[in-house]
What does this fold into?
Amino acid sequence: MNALFSYSMAVSAVLVLIYPVLYLTVSRNNSFRFNRLLLGFGLLAAFALPLIMTLNVTPIRHLADTAAVLTGDIVIKNAVTVTPQTPDSGIPVIMVLLGIYYCGVLVLTLKTLYSLLQLNRLKRHCRKESHDNHALYIHDNDLIAPFSFGKSIFLSEGDHNDPVIKHECGHVDASHWIDILIAESGCILLWYNPFMWLYKNLIKLNHEYEADHYVISSGMDISEYQHLLISKALGRRIMPLTNSLTNGTRNFRRRILIMSEGKTSSARKLLAALMIPSFVIAAALLTHPVSANVLSSITNFKMPEASEISEPQPVAA
It folds into this structure.
């Protein structure tokens, strides 16, 4: 199980390098399908790159201290070896880090399962309708913003109107829920990395751009639709794991403005080419002896016996 933590650290390093490029590209580009493909490729590449790189580099002498600290031993110049301990507990630092990491993974996994149970519970209390081969689930809670999950659309009685339904149909027809589940899985594995959460938000924001474009291209007046969005965004609850009409409220101004922008020039898409040097730097970082030793040390770490934790080793003279 140590390998999962080591792998997550490698993926995190790649995400830190490619996210600024992706944000710069997506925020300047209203070719939403291109943005979606780019975001999907970036996430796939971030998770694939550490798997195809050789992380186990032969340790060299001056890196011995780095590897030893992580595995629980400190090597001193004149060959004096001690076993480091956290205050009072005698537990190696890496055990603490692994414990924190897997606790975070467990908590977020349980939270995700609870969100799925909430959706199932809400569905059981809804009235089902059909609209252009789409399943509508109508409930009476006006505080919940309209949203879609899978092939189902949820909305309150007060939101039962054509623009809202068409917006959510745009999410369903584009299968945006698949992107959400993939991004959510990434957030569980990389919960400690803020760039993964920002990445998920960027994916969801692009989904809203695409669904807004779906409504406007159907012939609805842009100004009327913008007013509808603003009126529906105030004081509404957004369900986790879903695409909602009011997602992206932090970037609401940008979402409103982008509706009136013309088609993005092809030159702006060239910003995505900056991902190439980002991946090259990430590959060099992962294969550098320092980072390779750190990741290998975590992967190869073995839990000490209970007697070794409770009874610290004496200092060798």
